[in-house]
Write a sequence for this structure.
């Protein structure tokens, strides 16, 4: 995934899920200038390059 493929506008915390290595992670924040994504897992978060993300999936409205 590249910065150009990101949804337009602000990406809010826990609004999107990212598919990476066959697992889904909650998206906490995105740094478009550096091309990094902050993902949540268990009780922590980590930064990963956008190139590691296979696709973004938006949570369904309940």
């Amino acid at each position: 995934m590249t910065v150009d493929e990101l949804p337009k506008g602000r990406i809010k915390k826990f609004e999107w899920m990212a598919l990476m290595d066959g697992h889904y992670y909650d998206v906490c924040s995105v740094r478009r200038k550096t091309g990094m994504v902050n993902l949540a897992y268990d009780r922590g978060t980590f930064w990963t390059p956008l190139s590691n993300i296979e696709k973004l999936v938006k949570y369904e409205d309940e």
Observations:
- The chain has a mean pLDDT of 87.
- DSSP finds no helices and five strands in the chain.
